[in-house]
Amino acid sequence: MRLIVTGTGDAFSNSRFGSSSLIETPKGFIAIDCPGSPLMMYKQAALSTGLDVDPAAIHDIIVTHLHCDHAGGIETLAFYRKYIAPGGGRPGLWAAPAVMERMWERLAPSMDGRQFGEEPKSKLEDYFAPGLLSVEHAVDLAGLQVRARWTRHSVPTVGLLISDGDSTLGWSGDTEFEKAHVEWLSEADLIIHECGQAAKHARLEELMTLPSELQEKIKLIHVPDGADFPSSPMERLSDGDVLDIKTAVRETT
User: Fold this and answer.
1) Sign, Cα dihedral of 238, 243, 249, 250
2) Tens-place pLDDT, residues 162-195
3) Rounded to 5 degrees, what angle do the CA atoms 120, 123, 126 make?
4) What's the longest Cα–Cα distance across the chain?
5) Which H or E run includes 46?
6) CB 5 within 8 A of CB 239
7) Beta strand 218-221 with 190-194: parallel, antiparallel or unpaired?
8) Which of 103, 140, 206, 221 lies deepest, with the highest CB count within 10 Å?
């Protein structure tokens, strides 16, 4: 299982895309979050990696939460898939129940086609095949098993464990530092953990209290621009990195 890191920035980054990734599967990509300017983001990932990063090949999108730096590109991707590249059909759109129940509330003002008191012309299902993640059991996405856990953040947000049966990716989601959450993620071969400097985000000094063997499995995203962090076993990732989940070693491309 291979991960293409498409963004590593936080909400205020002016040099990187919002924290997000693509997982390669035989059925197409699974996107983890979809920040603003997704078409430019995927083009940059293709240029950086030399891989065919085609937004028309996205099979499913997982939305961890509805903050703009994680969900701001859903509208663009929806219109692109419906009107520019319709051949792949509707991609799946997955979120936990408390996130999904407000998804269309967020998107409808720009996507339902309603004007001046008219009835809406479109609904979420016209663009996506919605599905619910569960915090109680795994769900199947493109042949991968995906589990979710609520994090501590300012809006409903989940972390993820994603497995193909041979390797497992842990994705923290935006979260305050919580040992129970990291313990839940610890079964993964590779953990992508956010690391911020503001409220409602885990800080490096907190992550550095974790056992060294766990730190070795963690790589950092959502790091603020210009952050000067001390050396640690936890590598900071960059937009365009490609990682093998099993070995957690960056591939050369």
Assistant:
1) negative
2) 999 999 999 999 999 999 999 999 999 999 999 9
3) 130
4) 59
5) helix 38-49
6) yes
7) parallel
8) 221
Strands 92-95 and 2-7: unpaired
Could you tell me which residues are beta bridge partners of residue 58? 29
Asked, for residue 249, whether it belongs to a domain, the answer is no
Q: What is the 3-state secondary structure (H, E, C) of 121-140?
A: CCCHHHCCEEEECCCCCCEE
Structural domain contains residue 251: no
Q: Are strands 218-221 and 235-236 parallel, antiparallel or unpaired?
A: parallel
Residue 173 pLDDT: 98
The structure tokens 């929806």 sit at 78
Distance of CA 210 to the CA centre of its chain: 23
Asked whether residue 239 is domain-assigned, the answer is yes
Residue 158 resides in a domain: yes
**Nearest Cα to Cα of residue 41 among 56, 55, 51, 29:** 55
Task: Dump pLDDT digits (tens) for 88-126.
Answer: 999 999 999 999 999 999 999 999 999 998 899 999 999
What amino acid is encoded at 127 in this protein?
A: Y
What is the chain's length?
253
| Structure tokens belonging to residue 34 | 């979809």
